[in-house]
Amino acid sequence: MAGPHPAVAAIRLAVRAALAGLPPGDVVLAACSGGADSLALAAALAFEGPRLGLRPGGVTIDHGLQPGSAEQAGRVTGVLAGLGLDPVHAVRVTVARPGGAGGYPGPEAAARAARYAALDEIAPAPAAILLGHTLDDQAETVLLGLARGSGARALAGMAPVSGRYRRPLLGVRRAQTRAACAALRLTPWEDPHNSDPGYARVRVRRVLLPALEEQLGPGVAEALARTAGQLRADADALDELAAAAGRRIADGQPGLPAGALAAQPPAVRSRLLRAAALAAGAPAGALSHQHVTQMEALVTGWHGQRGVDLPGRIRCQRRYDRLIFAAGPRTRAPGAIGELSGRD
Questions:
Q1: 6-216 has which fold?
Q2: pTM (2 decimals)?
């Protein structure tokens, strides 16, 4: 008897590895838009989950950004249930206006923030949520980071595991997910946003990466993904150093001591400032390198300047040789500065 199609087998193997170590009986959800990547992921979870004693389920997020989005969410839940996934969730979210109170720079960041917020609130909480990002997505993320002048953390791309989020397909090409759907007779949904050149990621996908492969030869996407992995190891090490520094300078008082911050290496200091801003309530997707640079100026270039306005209506000010983060009319401590954020 012939085995599964090679693409189906590759995706099942990747999902099986991602599920390793989860106790039998745990609920694991596949986040599925209905596109080829997440649909192939959901099918693999439906196959592998029961064999590992897990309860495989699915979730789809309706961003409400397109006409008929509710109907599309209903179609996806029907497909997920047809694969044998249970429980199946459909969650409607409201996407913040870019540049509004959340400070998100564009619709993609705002939609991403709304999506993860909804996934975080699913009850009862699943043991793991699988995301369908592929090697191609990772390569696009690195190229976008390079174009925007991002730092090592952004260039490190997406993590295979981040809390309960797992990305089994980071070693799988997008062509494989399409082949797997075809072999399983699943019809993916083609999101119109994925062909809209108004989005930078679409231009990277359809123009820039093909041009690089034409000029440099095949293997560019794989090379970019390898670069992300190498930079992630470096960024993780710097995060650990910054977390240790945060614990050393914590003194139980609101804010951060400017003198202790000034004594840190720049790479450590920038991470401490970013962590403090996030802990104060600044949205991660809207907090930029420019914001961190402006906060650093309060430490290393202090001459009595006004504070820094951060996304999420947070304000960072220097008072009595301390950096204070204020939310609205109240001033509050930034929280546990040893707990860094920024990993996907």
A1: Rossmann fold (3.40.50)
A2: 0.83
